[in-house]
Every structure is written in structure tokens, then in C-alpha cells.
């Protein structure tokens, strides 16, 4: 069974779109649908087993606001805030070779 953890990404993933993929990865990063958030609302990293919610769902909202919605019955139930290590792993698995040079 594929175990999925979800992330509410508060780090700026805009850098992801500004970088080119320079090396092949074991499993490609996928855009998938979600029953709650809709078509192409999730970015799935099959290498780590993490699902990333599209930033458009949390844009303009405070950390505390989102944090209050992570629990049972909340708007983002089942998600958690991404750590720096989570973001680093996503970028690495996406084939971004020099993460530290991203501005």
C-alpha cells in the first residue's frame, strides 16, 4: 500500500519553476488530482511518498491561519507544514542539481 503524507508547502516553490531539470530521477514528480482540492492540485513525489498541495490554496494566508486548519475537520486536515528537509528532498528528487544556487 502506498503511504501518502501530505504537505502544506509554505516555502516558495516558485524557484522550482525557475530551475531546469538536469538529471534523470528514479520516478518522475507527478501532478495528480485530489478529491477535495480538485484537478492537478497535488504534486506527488513518489520517491519520498509525499504529496504537495498547490500553493494557490494557501497563498496570502498566515502560518497561524493555516496551522489552525491542519487538525481533524480542518480545511487542510491530513497535511503538515513542510520542513526545509522536505523541500530539499523534493527539489533533489525533481532533479534540480544545484539547489543552493537558486535565487
Task: For this entry, give a set of tags.
single chain, 103 residues, alpha/beta, 19% helix, disordered N terminus
Topology of helices and strands:
Blueprint (H helix, E strand, L loop, with lengths): L4 E4 L5 H5 L11 E5 L3 E8 L4 E4 L9 H5 L11 E3 L2 H10 L10
Parallel strand pairs: 1-4, 1-5
Antiparallel strand pairs: 2-3, 3-4
Task: Give a brief rundown of this model.
The chain has helices at 14-18, 63-67, 84-93; strands spanning 5-8, 30-34, 38-45, 50-53, 79-81. It has 103 residues and is an alpha/beta fold.
General form: globular
Number of helices: 3
Report the count of strand segments.
5
Order of helices and strands: EHEEEHEH
Q: Largest beta sheet: what is the strand line-up?
A: 2-3-4-1-5
| Structural class based on helices, strands and sheet pairing | alpha/beta
> Helix amount, in percent?
10-25%
Overview of this protein structure:
The chain is of the alpha/beta class. The chain has helices at residues 14-18, 63-67, 84-93, and strands at 5-8, 30-34, 38-45, 50-53, 79-81. The chain is built from 3 helices and 5 strands. It has a 5-stranded mixed beta sheet, with no helix packed on it. The longest helix has 10 residues, at 84-93. The model is unreliable at 1-5 and 8-25 (pLDDT under 50).
Amino acid at each position: 500500500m502506498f503511504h501518502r503524507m501530505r504537505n502544506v508547502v509554505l516555502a516558495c516553490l516558485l524557484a522550482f519553476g525557475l530551475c531546469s531539470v538536469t538529471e534523470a530521477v528514479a520516478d518522475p514528480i507527478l501532478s495528480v488530482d485530489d478529491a477535495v482540492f480538485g484537478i492537478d492540485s497535488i504534486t506527488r513525489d513518489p520517491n519520498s511518498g509525499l504529496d504537495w498541495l498547490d500553493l494557490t490554496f494557501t497563498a496570502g494566508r498566515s502560518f497561524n491561519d493555516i496551522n489552525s486548519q491542519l487538525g481533524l475537520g480542518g480545511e487542510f486536515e491530513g497535511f503538515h507544514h513542510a520542513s526545509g528537509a522536505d523541500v530539499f528532498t523534493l527539489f533533489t528528487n525533481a532533479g534540480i542539481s544545484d539547489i543552493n544556487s537558486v535565487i
